[in-house]
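Structure (tokenized):
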């Protein structure tokens, strides 16, 4: 039931081990849910309890260590042999006296790994301060290293199958966006539109289903709240003379494709009519600049040149590397950003969500695309939704 062939996981692990070796790390403990999925295929909603993947340089397969009741989930979704799927007892759950890292440390010690140079994801939310304290106390002879984002940087270059899933996700994004545009009308409740959007995202296409989107995978503020980027829906009813920003993302096997547009009911005000074409032009300029060998900051500079000429400005970044996302995490890979000062060179098969959100004091406008950096020339944009301010009279 894995979404990828075994060979692809082994390639991912080899690239991870190469980075481990370059960092002087012999053993890597991974806690980020997206990285667990990337390295093993594990795909279950069990991230409310501690679970880790352990990568050893000399082992072909990593270990998955999680709650005993979730061993079956790993057996169905991970590419691992049964011997490498290890469940800890239920008395570690909800206990003030015991901690899962006690079990993890004992497992590492049993394999002769207690004195290794151990890398941990120090800025991964599941790896709590207590996790770190417990592990260090129980492995006093190990040398700890911060391996934060080590796997994330491996993930930044996508395989053909990953890209295929993101293109499918983009198809779902288009369908859901059209559902939103069709459903938004005066007197309709925001929550009813949200329900239709989620229905479209999960129902999928004729030949594939949609999957659960990452936490906050749907933002849809309306009216004055379009000045805020990350708001959901309420039971308020849409009214004529107001805009709604829709940012959503289809999901296939954890892989997302973000898409954002703004819908206006009635005749839009002059300030919105003047801003929208500038943002559209700026996106075209930024996308045209997003080519292999160009730096992230150069893409942002192309955008900024267009909007500054028109008298606008935007302080926040205009995009980020996108890929796997889970309900308690984000689809953002936390690596490269399209912003001033990011010197990351674009490489073929990097994927980005370019989100041009213009949030003012009491109004706003959004436009976004997900794209792939190609081997030669302009990027491949995954969606083909009209790039404009959508007006419904």
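Design, position by position:
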């Amino acid at each position: 039931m894995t979404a990828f062939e075994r060979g692809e996981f082994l390639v991912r692990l080899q690239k991870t081990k190469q980075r481990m070796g370059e960092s002087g790390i012999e053993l890597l403990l991974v806690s980020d849910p997206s990285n667990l999925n990337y390295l093993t295929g594990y795909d279950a909603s069990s991230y409310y309890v501690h679970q880790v993947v352990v990568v050893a340089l000399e082992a072909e397969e990593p270990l998955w260590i999680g709650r005993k009741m979730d061993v079956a989930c790993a057996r169905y979704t991970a590419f691992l042999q049964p011997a490498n799927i290890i469940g800890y007892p239920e008395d570690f759950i909800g206990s003030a006296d015991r901690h899962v890292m006690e079990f993890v440390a004992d497992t590492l010690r049993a394999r002769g790994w207690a004195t290794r140079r151990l890398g941990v994801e120090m800025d991964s939310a599941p790896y709590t301060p207590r996790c770190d304290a417990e592990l260090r106390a129980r492995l006093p002879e190990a040398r700890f290293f911060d391996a934060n984002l080590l796997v994330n940087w491996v993930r930044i270059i996508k395989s053909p199958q990953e890209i295929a899933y993101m293109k499918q996700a983009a198809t779902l994004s288009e369908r859901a966006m059209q559902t939103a545009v069709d459903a938004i009308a005066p007197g309709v409740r925001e929550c009813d539109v949200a329900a239709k959007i989620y229905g479209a995202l999960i129902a999928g296409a004729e030949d594939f289903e949609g999957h659960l989107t990452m936490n906050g995978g749907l933002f849809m503020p309306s009216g004055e709240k379009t000045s805020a980027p990350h708001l959901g829906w309420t039971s308020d009813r849409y009214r004529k003379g107001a805009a709604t920003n829709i940012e959503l993302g289809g999901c296939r096997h954890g892989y997302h494709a973000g898409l954002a547009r703004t819908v206006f009911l009635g005749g839009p005000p002059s300030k919105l009519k003047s801003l929208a074409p500038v943002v559209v032009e700026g996106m075209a300029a930024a996308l045209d600049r997003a080519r292999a060998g160009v730096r992230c900051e150069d893409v942002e500079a192309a955008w900024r040149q267009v909007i500054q000429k028109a008298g606008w400005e935007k302080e926040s970044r205009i995009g980020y590397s996108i890929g796997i996302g889970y309900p308690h995490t984000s689809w953002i890979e936390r690596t490269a950003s399209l912003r001033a000062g990011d010197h990351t060179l674009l490489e073929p098969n990097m994927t980005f969500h370019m989100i041009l959100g213009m949030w003012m004091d009491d109004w706003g406008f959004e436009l976004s695309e997900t794209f792939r950096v190609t081997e030669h020339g302009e990027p491949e944009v995954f969606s083909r939704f009209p790039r404009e301010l959508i007006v419904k009279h």
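Reviewer-requested clarification: The radius of gyration is 23 Å. The chain has two domains: 6-155, 160-392.
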